[in-house]
């Protein structure tokens, strides 16, 4: 999605080359490209206008630091603004209530409500160890109730039966009662959708809402709908006090405009993203990661989250031991850490979680330059002998020249890495005194 935003930006990035600061003049073409790309991605016009104005305001006057090109600096600004537009930080589910925490699923037919109900049930059961019950109040669509039953079975959650001759509100009340008496933590209420916004449907879900008083009212919307998603979101947001949005079918060729507009229009956080038909295809929605995805920076963070479960516990312990024993942290460890992190799918993600000085050691992480920076650092470290890595103080001019030549970088770059490493080492020492646990937590997530 929005793939061509990256391509478009790359084109204008060239014209910005050599500028020391971003000005209204020199970013004009770039902004035009961003605007076009967003419109093509089906982002609503008012949202685009607002967005461009904000990017301009933030970008103009920005000094370009030496390690970034002006284009990258601008991409950095666009990235931050995209993140903000989608809500900034991730917002999770709110289950803090007298159980059962009731979650009402709202949305058009085909949006993915039933599927998402199953996905959420699975996530709540498996990851959060909740006891989950689900019920369908869809008495209109043939087989809707049976569909939820199948999904519930696959998700490993309990299903509360209902029949098409019952009234939705009665079904919901019976399910709440059952959930209470059987100590369920969460009750997921799947509702009927229509093909388009319709008054009767809205009144019904309003009645359901008033009856079960859910702590979460999630609006499920198909990302492929583009502009229509915005209108639907507006209608549901007007009719119901939504607490969050689930954007489904982000695995498809959705152009992503919905992700950008829905939050803007509803003011409600995007809480989850549906990324497949399978029940495992649900992710927490992280605005920053989505912004990276949109800009074609990949989604390293999500990758790492998956990979983190496979972190080499032994290595991590060994590393912790080393720090604790005060034996210090040398460039050999640094090399190991780089290898570990790379194995886990990306470096910047982990560095993000580590203290800032450490992150700096791997170069600036904005603008998709991280991989290149990491490769250069690796090149430098690989060109050292193990002894040099253990004792960087051995590195006098001639050795540095050899290393620089071996890594295809300048001596200055070698020096920069060494001084950053020194800072890191100092910081690590401090860490080993007090913050060890915090650090390990950060690394394991
Ligand atoms: P409902 O009418 O809102 O309950 O929608 P359903 O849950 O029945 O989903 C409609 C269709 O969308 C089904 O074929 C689902 O498999 C599919 N679907 C739902 N969520 C996703 C998703 O995140 N990705 C993909 N590719 N398909 C999805």
TrEMBL record:
<comment type="function">
    <text>Involved in targeting and insertion of nascent membrane proteins into the cytoplasmic membrane. Binds to the hydrophobic signal sequence of the ribosome-nascent chain (RNC) as it emerges from the ribosomes. The SRP-RNC complex is then targeted to the cytoplasmic membrane where it interacts with the SRP receptor FtsY. Interaction with FtsY leads to the transfer of the RNC complex to the Sec translocase for insertion into the membrane, the hydrolysis of GTP by both Ffh and FtsY, and the dissociation of the SRP-FtsY complex into the individual components.</text>
</comment>
<dbReference type="Pfam" id="PF00448">
    <property type="entry name" value="SRP54"/>
</dbReference>
<feature type="domain" description="SRP54-type proteins GTP-binding">
    <location>
        <begin position="269"/>
        <end position="282"/>
    </location>
</feature>
<protein>
    <recommendedName>
        <fullName>Signal recognition particle protein</fullName>
        <ecNumber>3.6.5.4</ecNumber>
    </recommendedName>
</protein>
<dbReference type="Pfam" id="PF02881">
    <property type="entry name" value="SRP54_N"/>
</dbReference>
<feature type="binding site">
    <location>
        <begin position="190"/>
        <end position="194"/>
    </location>
    <ligand>
        <name>GTP</name>
    </ligand>
</feature>
<dbReference type="InterPro" id="IPR036891">
    <property type="entry name" value="Signal_recog_part_SRP54_M_sf"/>
</dbReference>
<keyword id="KW-0378">Hydrolase</keyword>
<keyword id="KW-0733">Signal recognition particle</keyword>
<keyword id="KW-0963">Cytoplasm</keyword>
<keyword id="KW-0342">GTP-binding</keyword>
<comment type="subunit">
    <text>Part of the signal recognition particle protein translocation system, which is composed of SRP and FtsY. SRP is a ribonucleoprotein composed of Ffh and a 4.5S RNA molecule.</text>
</comment>
<feature type="binding site">
    <location>
        <begin position="248"/>
        <end position="251"/>
    </location>
    <ligand>
        <name>GTP</name>
    </ligand>
</feature>
<keyword id="KW-0694">RNA-binding</keyword>
<keyword id="KW-0687">Ribonucleoprotein</keyword>
<dbReference type="InterPro" id="IPR042101">
    <property type="entry name" value="SRP54_N_sf"/>
</dbReference>
<comment type="similarity">
    <text>Belongs to the GTP-binding SRP family. SRP54 subfamily.</text>
</comment>
<dbReference type="InterPro" id="IPR022941">
    <property type="entry name" value="SRP54"/>
</dbReference>
<dbReference type="Pfam" id="PF02978">
    <property type="entry name" value="SRP_SPB"/>
</dbReference>
<dbReference type="InterPro" id="IPR004125">
    <property type="entry name" value="Signal_recog_particle_SRP54_M"/>
</dbReference>
<feature type="binding site">
    <location>
        <begin position="107"/>
        <end position="114"/>
    </location>
    <ligand>
        <name>GTP</name>
    </ligand>
</feature>
<dbReference type="InterPro" id="IPR013822">
    <property type="entry name" value="Signal_recog_particl_SRP54_hlx"/>
</dbReference>
<dbReference type="InterPro" id="IPR027417">
    <property type="entry name" value="P-loop_NTPase"/>
</dbReference>
<dbReference type="InterPro" id="IPR003593">
    <property type="entry name" value="AAA+_ATPase"/>
</dbReference>
<keyword id="KW-0547">Nucleotide-binding</keyword>
<dbReference type="InterPro" id="IPR000897">
    <property type="entry name" value="SRP54_GTPase_dom"/>
</dbReference>
<dbReference type="InterPro" id="IPR004780">
    <property type="entry name" value="SRP"/>
</dbReference>
